[in-house]
Amino acid sequence: MSTVVFAAHGMTPAERLRDAGWIAFVAFILGVPLIGLTTVDVGGRLAVNTRFGLLAAAVAVAFGGRLALRWAFDRLAARKASRQRAGSAISRTQTIANVLGWIALGAAVALPIAFSDNRYVVDTATTVLIYVMLGWGLNVVVGLAGLLDLGYVAFYAVGAYAYALLSTQYGWSFWEALPVAGAIAAGFGILLGYPILRLRGDYLAIVTLGFGEIIRVILVNWTEFSGGPNGIGSIPRPSFFGLAFTRSAPEGGHSFASFFGLEFSAMHRLIFLYYLILVLALLTHAFVSRLRKLPVGRAWEALREDEIACKAMGMNTTHIKLSAFAIGAMLGGFAGVFFAARQGFVSPESFVFTESAIILAIVVLGGMGSQMGVVLAATLLVLIPEFGRNFAEYRMLLFGLAMVLIMVWRPGGLLAHREPTLRLAKAAGGEQ
Amino acid sequence: MMLTMEGVHAHYGHIHALRGIDVSVQVGEIVTLIGANGAGKSTLMMSLFGNPRASAGRIVFDGEDITRLTTHEIARRGIALVPEGRRIFPRMTVLENLQMGAAQADPANYEADIARVYAMFPILQERQNQRAGTLSGGEQQMLAIGRALMSRPKLLLLDEPSLGLAPIYIRKIFQIVRELNRDHGMTILLVEQNANQALRVAHRGYVLQHGEITLAGSGAELLASPEVRAAYLEGGAHG
Ligand SMILES: Nc1ncnc2c1ncn2[C@@H]1O[C@H](COP(=O)(O)OP(=O)(O)OP(=O)(O)O)[C@@H](O)[C@H]1O
Ligand SMILES: [Mg+2]
């Protein structure tokens, strides 16, 4: 039966279901001791507790995941074959990136289920996703449009403070504030974009660096507005379609736990936040991937390659640059809103230059313009310092060392390949 | 008259690169511009595009004064440039490069224009999904020309298209120039170091020296002129 597992593509639906069923069965066998049964400490004695609901969920994920993975592999193989027919060079890196993408997505969806009572893991994963989102946002500006931005954290700050102020001062909810904060951040992106239209490379980097610092310094000093160094606290947490994650239900209403008849757990909110940022990140990814295939996205890339040639082709480089800044800033703003909602507290300390540097490092290590590369790099850059905790003060040293090693190992970034945005549908060309 | 430049001056800071240029191009003509390194040939072409902007004088294209327009506005009027050094988009594929050329064109023509470019340069079709930066120099030059044609220009500017190419490619490029003009009625302004071949394909030519036009005439006249022979043909490029 296990021969099915590595069978070539072209499986019938029945075969696929059988294949996935087999994996689900393995997951069930493994899952009973690992997930289904847990020991709990009851008054000093160990008792066995069953978690069959969770087990069922895990088995279902294994089943669905296997189906999706199988399908993805087959499609990849099919695409690879058609590419070979088209006579173009197939890129191994891109294939790896695709497979990694599906695995990462499956893992990301399953993670809170597998670690539903591990606060640390869910929290760290949420942090990774915030950086993924920031990386994808900055990728538009640096990776696609080729505009070196060292002050990206400013837009993250604008989004975070916009939500902090709108929610604490005007009682806006997370979902109301999200688009508005994104728009405000985009506005700041254009504001920054205008004066630096003529700058490139090093000069652009210096000015954006200054912009990032200006925003931070304003936040520190304009105490009436931003609370100064103390920041803004008691920011409302996002609710689940109006259901708050509180221990007790409000008068005449429901909390999340009471509505679903669950026992209250602080993990519910963490898991919800995790899925929230996952959804935001996936939307960002879909949005950016789509843009790349539209004229505006291709114009960004052309701008990165050669500005003069762009102009000579009738492209308005002013609009192209401003749109890149605005969209990058908006995505940073969204991440900021989420950050503020998750922390419940914002202060200028979260928006220092080091943050900009880390986000930029994620884009560069990931391979400038590669969406999957950003995911890998963000994961590495968040996890390395976490694993490094054992090394106490050597932690940041380890972090720096890892970055240097990655760049030596892969000078173009982890996934430096750029996937073309279009191919002719028919295998035109071939042989003449 | 498709294009006229009247008394055009241009500066880079305090460098006075063009000193009162009078040049005209008629519909259906190939006009060539020859001159030594640093004479101002590229500057002349770029000043047509407002980059650098003419500091004095007037540029009229298709009956419209374009002296004050921005580069992209001028390009949208129907002038396409194959810049010096090709300036293709190296990390984008051949097909994407061609598509960028059509960025401002009517999408309805896209398929037909791609087919036309591929018919002219079959090698581009074979390489269409390859990164443009990995093409050979000659192939990149063909791509640059193909990309410029994708916008269906009324006037095509070619800045030293034969630069750095092997003789077989140079012949091919000049043949393309002639075909574009003869079969497609394309009006062309051609800058060349390769004076001999350029003057052979061109209807008319100008000689540029230190930012000034020193000689003008038909291709044959210039080929026969002793000054041109002395300065640009003998001892220079053969071909
Ligand atoms: N961007 C620039 N900044 C300053 N000076 C420039 C610039 N571009 C050109 N020049 C100067 O203007 C003059 C004309 O240059 P141009 O590039 O037009 O020469 P050219 O005739 O095209 O030469 P070549 O045959 O070598 O390409 C030269 O003296 C050059 O140094
Ligand atoms: Mg030149």
UniProtKB/TrEMBL annotation, chain A:
* Pfam hit, one: BPD_transp_2
Q: How does it sit in the membrane?
A: Multi-pass membrane protein
| Record-annotated High-affinity branched-chain amino acid transport system permease LivHM N-terminal domain positions | 16-110
Segments spanning the bilayer are 20-40, 52-73, 94-116, 128-148, 153-172, 178-197, 204-222, 270-288, 322-345, 357-384, 396-416
Spell out the molecular function terms from Gene Ontology.
branched-chain amino acid transmembrane transporter activity
- What are its GO cellular component terms? plasma membrane
Q: Which InterPro entries match?
A: ABC_transp_permease, LivHM_N, LivM-like
Q: Does the keyword GTP-binding apply?
A: no
Q: What is its main location?
A: membrane
Q: Which UniProt keywords apply?
A: Cell membrane, Membrane, Transmembrane, Transmembrane helix
Q: Where in the cell is it found?
A: Cell membrane
PANTHER family with a match to the protein in the record? HIGH-AFFINITY BRANCHED-CHAIN AMINO ACID TRANSPORT SYSTEM PERMEASE (PTHR30482), HIGH-AFFINITY BRANCHED-CHAIN AMINO ACID TRANSPORT SYSTEM PERMEASE PROTEIN LIVM (PTHR30482:SF20)
| Name of the molecule in the record | High-affinity branched-chain amino acid ABC transporter permease LivM
